[in-house]
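[step 3/7] inverse_fold.run input=structure_tokens len=244
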């Protein structure tokens, strides 16, 4: 398999404008199949805008986005999601007035009723996120922040996805819940799911990442293995202004 074919998602020279603001300045990014890629960078570097551009929530003003060799640059968000891509935004996007079960059912496109959902997969999700089972019939708005984050990820994987994109899954979470989240992503990796994570928690990134891309000022300025970045303090300081 060629290097190009080994990449599930490829951004080439992507520029994104939001109103008068030029946010992405020629992003080049390749996401290898079956790996977990960390997208790191200081606040305001363009990480969330990159994810939203991939999902068609904002459209690239130039450049291209290819998924599985298909040009998805101009597609609308529902079409992109229909290609078996799941996105967990930073604000989680939970429907507060619906129960946990109803939130999950909305994401299960193959199911019209709760009993139509794949029970084997649900039990696996419950093993990853026990709170989802515990609060199955509770309004999602009543959950704690950590429980909502678990629900957001559980909802994204209620059916097998080819690509999972998650924006800052550990933000504001207690260490015990962060460890639970790390375990869940590690299990997802074992299923062959390709994952793209934006993360500020560097220890989280270090424990999970295969590949890392670092953004600054709307561009990708470094690509390499997570291990390489974790082992190189000078590189960490140069790229991120911190030490892992």
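[step 3/7] decode complete -> sequence:
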């Amino acid at each position: 398999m060629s290097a190009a074919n080994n990449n599930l998602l490829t951004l080439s020279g992507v520029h994104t404008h939001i109103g008068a603001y030029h946010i992405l300045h020629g992003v080049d990014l390749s996401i290898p199949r079956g790996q977990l890629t960390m997208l790191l960078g200081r606040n305001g570097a363009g990480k969330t805008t990159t994810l939203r551009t991939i999902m068609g929530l904002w459209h690239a003003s130039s450049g291209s986005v290819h998924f599985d060799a298909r040009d998805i640059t101009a597609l609308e968000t529902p079409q992109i999601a229909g290609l078996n891509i799941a996105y967990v935004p930073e604000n989680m996007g939970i429907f507060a007035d619906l129960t946990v079960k109803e939130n999950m059912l909305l994401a299960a496109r193959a199911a019209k009723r709760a009993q139509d959902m794949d029970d084997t997969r649900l039990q696996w999700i419950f093993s990853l996120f026990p709170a989802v089972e515990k609060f199955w019939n509770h309004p999602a708005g009543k959950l704690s922040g950590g429980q909502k984050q678990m629900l957001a990820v559980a909802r994204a994987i209620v059916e097998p996805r080819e690509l999972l994109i998650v924006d800052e899954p550990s933000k504001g979470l207690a260490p015990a819940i962060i460890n639970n989240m790390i375990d869940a992503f590690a299990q997802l990796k074992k299923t062959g799911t390709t994952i793209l994570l934006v993360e500020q928690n560097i220890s989280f990134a270090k424990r999970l990442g295969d590949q890392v891309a670092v953004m600054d000022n709307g561009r990708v300025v470094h690509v390499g293995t997570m291990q390489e970045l974790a082992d190189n303090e000078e590189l960490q300081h140069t790229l991120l202004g911190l030490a892992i």
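[step 4/7] annotate
The beta strands are 7-18, 21-32, 36-41, 62-67, 70-71, 85-88, 163-167, 194-198, 211-216, 219-225.
The first strand starts at residue 7 and ends at 18.
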